[in-house]
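Ligand: flavin-adenine dinucleotide. Inputs:
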Amino acid sequence: ATGDHVPALVIGSGYGGAVAALRLTRAGIDTHVVEMGQSWTTPGSDGLIFNSMLKPDGRSFWFRTKTDQPVGYFSGGSVNKSIASYAGVLDSEAFAATRVYQGRGVGGGSLVNGGMAVTPKRSYFEEVLPSVNSDEMYGTYFPRANAALGVNAIDPAWFESTEWYKFARVGRQTANDSGFATTFVPNVYDFAYMKQEAAGQVRKSALAQEVIYGNNAGKRSLDKTYLAAAAATGRLSISPLHTVTAVAPAAGGGYTVEMTQIDTAGAVVARKTVTADRVFFAAGSVGTSKLLVAMKATGRLPDLGDEVGAGWGNNGNVMVGRANHMWDPTGGNQSCIPALGIDDWADAAGPVFAEIAPFPAGTELWISLYLAITKNPNRARFVFDAGTGKVGLNWQAGWTQPSIDAAKRVFDAINKKEGTIYRTDLFGVYKTWGDDFVYHPLGGCVLGRATDGYGRLPGHPGLYVVDGSLVPGSIGVNPFVTITALAERNMAKIIATDL
Ligand code: FAD
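Predicted complex:
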């Protein structure tokens, strides 16, 4: 309520926020998390909390009247459907030349993501974040993050035999035919549960087209791991459906935090102002960057530097589909949880790490879908528009081309070898590349540039950044393990020295 005072306030409940919440509460500090999305604990009229990908409704999207599926087209038309506007779980946030998909709810991106839990290649981590001691990261913080996230590996024998991963085996075979290596990718989805799904012993989730609009079972999302552990200390409180709109120094020390509470229909219920001794920005690459850029531009946090808002990248994301031959079916039954990646990162002329993604339509389509992570050098900046009071992102449409060029080195080769072609109907009408959206926003408040070496915001003691905005635009693999491990490292330092 307005006037309340808390020792520590965390903005956002994704990976960075969940780590901050656990480490602060374990250190004996009462911690309040403010999250703009819902707490996803109450089932809808169908008895389910989340929707399958095949049956979206209001729960699927953050205030949209029409779905905006990443693979939004098929056979010459849009496959998007009308839905009720509601505080749904997946946001597709539109900027001038890209849409950024993000999770909305207690658990942030962990509610909607594919769960791929990949520790980056050490050499690339060192290239991207040279100021961070990699012995400490690979010796202590990556293992700590993997353990706390509940990362597990698929049983290889089951992978080889189950119909649910035929799509991945076909993706592997066609990659291997062209000389590309594949690798198993760990996940936070409980593979033992998935085996029981396949055996018909439990309710199907990953095997029932559940993932980007949430999983009703099987997935170790943050509400079940870090946030549950933080709650168990008795020192955690969470305000869902509260959006932080301003942070500024308070007269008597600490910071005032202004927030707006909405209901699930989007109507404003209340505006509140509280004070906090310390504020942890964990609103994600986009959320944290937008907030800080606006606070700097409006003079509320005047001492923030020019690096705030800079260094944003899309982790080189680009999506593409291939049409397999009729004799290479990918399976009508596909697990929604990816298990394999094509690893061609060693190609200096165009490094690629490509997730072999499911295309779970419930029917045979002979499609191989890939989310390629590439080394795209382009970086954008978040910019405050004084006219509208909004923060934009100056990413340009052509800036995805280096990612397409790199991905073509892999998928042109596969198509040539197999005598196959790209699907041109999945991302538009005659549009081969899914290059106008991103799953992996990174940067905007880069470690060691906009912050000090541990995420402290210079000039404003007690303000910290702990999320994906610290990572400078690229990490070469799916990013949440890195975001979690970096937050673990920074929180360990902050708790030891500042609190
Ligand atoms: P987030 O997890 O985005 O958390 C930020 C939170 O802050 C959100 O809950 C948001 O609602 C809240 N927030 C924002 N602004 C405010 C505000 N002003 N006030 C209050 N709250 C606010 N990564 C992987 O590693 N593996 C994968 O398999 C994978 N698959 C993905 C699939 C999809 C469809 C998507 C969208 C992403 C995927 N990702 C994956 C990316 C991964 O989910 C993100 O990198 C990760 O969630 C970022 O963590 P974060 O802590 O920086 O922010």
